[in-house]
């Protein structure tokens, strides 16, 4: 099992040049993008949901379940994105990431903590030189309604503060009004803003906010548009809009990254975020990753869960499998325990 | 000096044309009561039946794809044309069936009315027989009737016009095409009906009429693989016809078989003056059910 | 219980084995016939029902002789005359509701037994066969006291035939039983039913359900046996109506046998369905539909989408995606909840599949299978795809009734329709395209009783099912499914 979170040390590609090449056009226009995106095969909602439900019935062997729980823990972007966030809370989250279960130090660490840009430095400092990454939401998260200058400044600020990863939001208004070129250009520019100037750059996750895109056809088009524009990850949601990360939406995105690799040879990651709360849910997602995209995506390099409470449920299950007894919330150390337990 | 009248030559009706039997044969037709000679009718053969099936098959897709409204208009037009030929039909039915003038008038009226009745069904039975099925899932699901295809019809032996119309109209109103073997002894009203059909708007090949003996022709129709269904009404009282054998042969391509009325192995000719129900129409229909998911 | 070999290793995930427990099934060592409400010994030679996944003997079953069938028909007649025909529709309905409820309560038991006896994956018997069987009883139960509203022959007073003989196949033993018995009873008929000789056990468990529901004796009689027992039912003069699901060959024999009598028949026979994929199809769902169309129930499905007609412009892509998907199909222990494809139902069926696929190869089609490991014991066949198939190949014409897909191509909608209809069968068809008007045009043109557009192999008690041409006649399911069980005017 790989838990590497090594950042690919590639610099921002010239997304526009590559898009022209892939689309076979001399100039990248909105019309060219529209023709290309609308030429993607449609998604039948009922068939897609039936497929996802079928994958959800897979039953996992005990040894695989142990492995899957550890893998799921290692894929978590442990997240706090609230107006009430404090430095203390972020430090607490970082501490939790470093030692998820003080009663069992063999517990793997989550992939990253995910915070607002102004908390990056705090998180970075708390995590030290651990392998836990710091991801920052940017580009006027969660609405994305700000000028491009603000969005780029937001991004650069987070990168400068040491963010390893940037979670940007697309302009859903532009997308839904058919202005794909604007969405493309914004992603491409944010990609460039992720450059650290030293030959490395922060990895970019593109949040499509699928709950606002509504249809699976839109999810598929937005996925391809995000990949075309240079996103390293495609991500379902901000967590602020319902529905967030559903299994069928994630399935569509996994099909997209699978087909994108067929087309370009490049891998893109997938991050469902919001609403995944239980170990059982997480394992359904991993089954879907395995059967739709394939084994190559079963690493936190290429698959993440954006979640906050999921970690604790995974830890409960982990304790249950280690000790043989059902565990309880009071046995899960937590700096901000949820009243839901 | 009396004028030498022009005698009518009676032929078959196949593919909208009036060919002689390929066999070249004809037979003598006599009036029912007096036994007087009426005419020589063409004696259809198995090859005529084969040609008729070819014509019916060729005409079937077009007739089935005509709008239901259009098929209704076409059937209604047949009634109009028959009305204009009423005296001739009455005379022929009188001769064929030995009826009084009043009884023959009544039979012709009913035959005409029967076209009108079935014409009106053309755009209604699909709604009556099918519709949306409330399946337990996110699917649009609908069942609708379609014609079976080519139907072989043994027309009643006794009721030469009303019975004949009563078996043809319900088969074709839904878009089937038919190959009809007429009453052997009473074929002349069928020939006049052919002329009515030919001068109305019924496309050639939709109705094909073969005069002759069912015992000779029906076995070839019942075993014909390009015939989808068979109406055995005319087996009742037909000389040398064993409807059990015809049904057995029909099993080779699983024809839909409309058995003759009666009980046990007996075949009897029903009372065609009774108001029909939908059973002769539904006998030559298939139900097609189409599913489609409902999604955004 | 099953020597299991590791399936294709897709990932470090080890699915299963997650076998459904057999403990819910209380198998007896031998079973009699169910006549007049009681289990009685049959006069013929007992035969064994085996699990096709392991070749393990599950139970001995009686063979009904002509005399046994006669006794069953007489019991059904007596029950019809004295009890069932005099009972109100509302009360008949209540018995059917009772049966439906018991089937739901004992669903797990039925599912496990079905999977043991038939070889189909537990996820199918659990999620499809048994729930649908119960649903058919619920649906028809409600009709029993509403027949006068069903636009049936007989109008306000539809009349049952009397005693109905029913012969069902081995591919969906319980579901076919429900399709047959529920509408027959709802309309007021009594029943003599013969399950297939390789899958008699759920029908015999159903007999217990009839007892449990206090169904009056003789209303449902179940006689087990092979062809001769079926023949005895078909030929019995005391049978007023026959309902058969099975091969077209046997269907024709039945049609011949009843020729010249007044027995009615519903025949639900074979198929060679075209599953037509256009270049604008929702491709990922189409691939699922192709897989579901031919590998559901090991392809032992009369309406299976056994001929894939794919538009030439996307043929290669569909083929590539299909093969990748087949790589994830899990073949093995039918009781394992993760199994997608189970065992072939019998040695005889396996031999037929092998013979036809060998013919496909020798006639020049290109053979591919997913290379999965197969258990050592039992009857197994890998999910197989033939490409480069033409209409004249035997594998494009004959019903294989196994997990074997023939891939053909077309260029225009007209050509797709022509190829789809170029068969003596006409049971079902599939259409995959995002263009609505094309779906409706295609649906009009296809000579098939069930057309699935952008889906496949969906079934529902309210939805009529049955074929055109040599796929049989009569419909089962929905209001249409009641019609064959009441007297017509001819």
Automatic annotation (TrEMBL), chain A:
According to UniProt, this protein's pathway is:
Carbohydrate degradation; 2-deoxy-D-ribose 1-phosphate degradation; D-glyceraldehyde 3-phosphate and acetaldehyde from 2-deoxy-alpha-D-ribose 1-phosphate: step 2/2
Transmembrane domains' residue ranges: none
So which domain of life are we looking at? Bacteria
Q: What is its EC number?
A: 4.1.2.4
Give the Gene Ontology MF terms in alphabetical order.
deoxyribose-phosphate aldolase activity
Which keywords appear in this protein's UniProt record, sorted alphabetically?
Answer: Lyase, Schiff base
Q: Does the keyword Lyase apply?
A: yes
Name its GO BP terms in alphabetical order: carbohydrate catabolic process; deoxyribonucleotide catabolic process
According to its UniProt entry, this protein's organism is Knoellia subterranea KCTC 19937
**One cellular-component annotation, GO:** cytoplasm
Q: Which family does it belong to?
A: Belongs to the DeoC/FbaB aldolase family. DeoC type 2 subfamily.
Protein's name in the database = Deoxyribose-phosphate aldolase
Q: Does the keyword Lyase apply?
A: yes
Pfam families the record matches = DeoC
Catalytic activity reads: 2-deoxy-D-ribose 5-phosphate = D-glyceraldehyde 3-phosphate + acetaldehyde
UniProtKB/TrEMBL annotation, chain B:
Q: Which residues form the Aldehyde dehydrogenase domain?
A: 21-237
Domain of life where this protein originates:
Bacteria
Gene Ontology molecular function, alphabetical: oxidoreductase activity
Pfam families annotated for this entry? Aldedh (PF00171)
Q: Kindly give the InterPro entries that the UniProt entry links to this protein.
A: Ald_DH/histidinol_DH (IPR016161), Ald_DH_N (IPR016162), Aldehyde_DH_dom (IPR015590)
Q: Which organism is it from?
A: Knoellia subterranea KCTC 19937
Q: Which named protein is this?
A: Aldehyde dehydrogenase
For this UniProt record, the keywords arranged alphabetically read as follows: Oxidoreductase
UniProtKB/TrEMBL annotation, chain C:
Q: Please list the GO terms describing molecular function.
A: oxidoreductase activity, acting on the aldehyde or oxo group of donors, NAD or NADP as acceptor
Looking at the record, which segments are called Disordered?
470-490
Q: Which Pfam families match?
A: Aldedh
Q: Which domain of life is it from?
A: Bacteria
State the active site. Answer: 268
Please list the residue ranges annotated as the Aldehyde dehydrogenase domain. Answer: 40-487
Annotated keywords: Oxidoreductase
Looking at the keywords, is Oxidoreductase present? yes
The residue ranges flagged as biased composition, category Basic and acidic residues, are 472-482
Matching entries from InterPro entries are given as: Ald_DH/histidinol_DH, Ald_DH_C, Ald_DH_CS_GLU, Ald_DH_N, Aldehyde_DH_dom
The record's comment on protein family reads: Belongs to the aldehyde dehydrogenase family.
Instruction: Kindly provide the name given to this protein in its UniProt entry.
Output: Betaine-aldehyde dehydrogenase
């Amino acid at each position: 099992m790989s838990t590497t979170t090594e950042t690919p040390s590639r610099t921002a590609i010239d997304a526009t040049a590559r898009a022209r090449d892939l689309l076979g056009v001399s100039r990248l226009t909105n019309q060219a993008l529209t023709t290309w995106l609308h030429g993607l095969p449609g998604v039948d909602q009922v068939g897609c949901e039936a497929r996802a439900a079928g994958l959800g019935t897979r039953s996992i062997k005990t040894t695989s379940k142990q492995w899957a729980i550890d893998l799921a823990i290692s894929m978590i972007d442990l997240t706090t994105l609230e107006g009430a966030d404090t430095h203390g809370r972020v430090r607490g989250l970082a501490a939790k990431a470093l030692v998820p279960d003080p009663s069992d130090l063999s517990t793997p660490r989550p992939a990253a903590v995910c915070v607002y840009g102004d908390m990056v430095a705090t998180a970075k400092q708390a995590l030290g030189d651990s392998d836990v990454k710091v991801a920052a939401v940017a580009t006027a998260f969660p609405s994305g309604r700000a000028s491009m200058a603000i969005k780029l400044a937001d991004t650069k600020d987070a990168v400068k503060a040491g963010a390893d990863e940037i979670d940007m939001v697309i302009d859903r208004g532009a997308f839904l009004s058919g202005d794909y070129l604007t969405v493309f250009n914004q992603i491409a520019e944010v990609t460039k803003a992720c450059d650290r100037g030293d030959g490395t750059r922060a990895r970019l996750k593109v949040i499509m906010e699928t709950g606002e895109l509504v249809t699976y056809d839109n999810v598929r088009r937005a996925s391809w548009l995000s990949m075309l524009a240079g996103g390293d990850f495609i991500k379902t949601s901000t967590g602020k809009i319902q529905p967030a990360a559903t299994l069928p939406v994630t399935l569509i995105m996994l099909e997209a990254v699978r087909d994108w690799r067929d087309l370009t040879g490049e891998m893109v990651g997938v991050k469902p975020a919001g609403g995944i709360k239980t170990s059982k849910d997480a394992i359904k997602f991993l089954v879907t990753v395995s059967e739709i995209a394939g084994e190559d995506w079963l690493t936190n390099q290429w698959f993440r869960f954006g979640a906050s409470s999921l970690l604790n449920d995974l830890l409960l299950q982990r304790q249950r499998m280690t000790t043989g007894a059902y565990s309880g919330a009071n046995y899960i150390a937590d700096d901000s325990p949820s009243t839901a337990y | 000096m009396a004028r030498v009248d022009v005698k009518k030559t009676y032929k078959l009706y196949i593919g909208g044309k009036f060919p002689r039997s390929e066999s070249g044969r004809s037979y003598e037709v006599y009036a029912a009561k007096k036994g007087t000679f009426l005419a020589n009718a063409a004696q259809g053969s198995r090859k005529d039946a084969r040609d008729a099936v070819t014509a019916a098959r060729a005409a079937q897709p077009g007739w089935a794809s005509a709008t239901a409204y259009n098929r209704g208009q076409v059937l209604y037009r047949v009634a109009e044309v028959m009305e204009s030929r009423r005296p001739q039909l009455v005379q022929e039915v009188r001769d064929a069936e030995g009826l009084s003038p009043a009884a023959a008038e009544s039979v012709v009226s009913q035959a005409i009315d029967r076209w009108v009745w079935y014409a009106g069904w053309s755009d209604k039975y699909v709604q009556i027989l099918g519709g949306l099925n409330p399946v337990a899932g996110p699917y649009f699901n609908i069942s609708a009737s379609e014609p079976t295809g080519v139907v072989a019809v043994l027309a009643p032996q006794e009721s030469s016009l009303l019975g004949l119309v009563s078996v043809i109209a319900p088969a074709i109103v839904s878009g089937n095409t038919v190959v009809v073997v007429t009453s052997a002894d009473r074929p002349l009203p069928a020939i006049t009906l052919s002329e009515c059909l030919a001068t109305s708007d019924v496309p050639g090949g939709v109705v094909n009429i073969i005069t002759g003996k069912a015992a000779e022709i029906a076995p070839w129709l019942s075993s014909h693989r390009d015939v989808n269904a068979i109406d055995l009404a005319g087996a009742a009282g037909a000389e040398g016809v064993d409807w059990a054998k015809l049904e057995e042969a029909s099993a080779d391509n699983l024809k839909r078989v409309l058995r003759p009325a009666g009980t046990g192995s007996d075949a009897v000719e029903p009372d065609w003056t009774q108001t029909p129900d939908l059973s002769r129409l539904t006998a030559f229909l298939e139900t097609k059910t189409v599913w489609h998911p409902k999604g955004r | 219980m099953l020597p299991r070999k590791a399936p294709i290793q897709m990932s470090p995930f080890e699915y299963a084995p997650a076998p459904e427990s057999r403990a819910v099934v209380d198998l007896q060592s031998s079973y009699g016939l169910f006549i007049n409400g009681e289990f009685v010994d049959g006069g013929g030679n007992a035969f064994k029902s085996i699990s096709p996944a392991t070749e393990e003997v599950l139970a001995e079953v009686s063979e009904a002789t002509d005399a046994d069938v006669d006794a069953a028909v007489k019991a059904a007649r007596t029950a019809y005359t004295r009890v069932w025909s005099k009972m109100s529709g509302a009360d008949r309905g209540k018995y059917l509701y009772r049966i439906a409820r018991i089937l739901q309560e004992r669903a797990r038991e039925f599912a496990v037994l079905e999977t043991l006896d038939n070889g189909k994956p537990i996820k199918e018997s659990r999620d499809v066969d048994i729930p649908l069987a119960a649903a058919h009883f619920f649906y028809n139960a409600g009709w029993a006291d509403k027949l006068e509203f069903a636009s049936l022959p007989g109008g306000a007073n539809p009349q049952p035939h009397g005693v109905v003989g029913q012969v069902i196949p081995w591919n969906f033993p319980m579901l076919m039983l429900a399709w047959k018995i529920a509408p027959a009873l709802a309309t007021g008929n009594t029943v003599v039913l013969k399950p297939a000789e390789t899958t008699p056990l759920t029908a015999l468990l159903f007999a217990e359900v009839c007892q449990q529901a206090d169904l009056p004796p003789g209303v449902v009689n179940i006689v087990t046996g092979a062809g001769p027992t079926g023949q005895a039912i078909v030929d019995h003069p005391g049978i007023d109506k026959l309902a058969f699901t099975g091969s077209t060959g046997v269907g024709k024999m039945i049609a011949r046998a009843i020729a010249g009598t007044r027995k009615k028949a519903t025949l639900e026979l074979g198929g060679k369905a075209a599953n037509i994929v256009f270049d604008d199809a929702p491709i990922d769902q189409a691939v699922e539909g192709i897989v579901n169309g031919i590998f559901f129930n090991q392809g032992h499905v009369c309406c299976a989408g056994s001929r894939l007609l794919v538009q030439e412009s996307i043929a290669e892509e569909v083929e590539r995606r299909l093969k990748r998907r087949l790589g994830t199909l899990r073949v093995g222990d039918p009781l394992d909840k993760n199994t997608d494809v189970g065992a072939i139902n019998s040695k005889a069926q396996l031999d037929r599949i092998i013979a036809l696929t060998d013919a496909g190869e020798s006639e020049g089609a290109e053979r591919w299978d997913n290379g999965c490991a197969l258990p050592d014991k039992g009857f197994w066949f890998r999910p197989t795809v033939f490409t480069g198939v033409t209409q004249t190949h035997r594998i494009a014409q004959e019903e294989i009734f196994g997990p074997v897909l023939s891939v053909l191509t077309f260029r225009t909608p007209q050509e797709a329709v022509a190829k789809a209809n170029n068969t003596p069968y006409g049971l079902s068809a599939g259409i995959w395209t995002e263009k609505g008007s094309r779906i409706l045009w295609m649906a009009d043109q296809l000579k098939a009783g069930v057309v699935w557009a952008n889906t496949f192999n969906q079934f529902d008690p309210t939805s009529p099912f049955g074929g055109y041409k040599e796929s049989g006649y009569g419909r089962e399911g929905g209001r249409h499914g009641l019609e064959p069980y009441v007297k017509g005017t001819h």
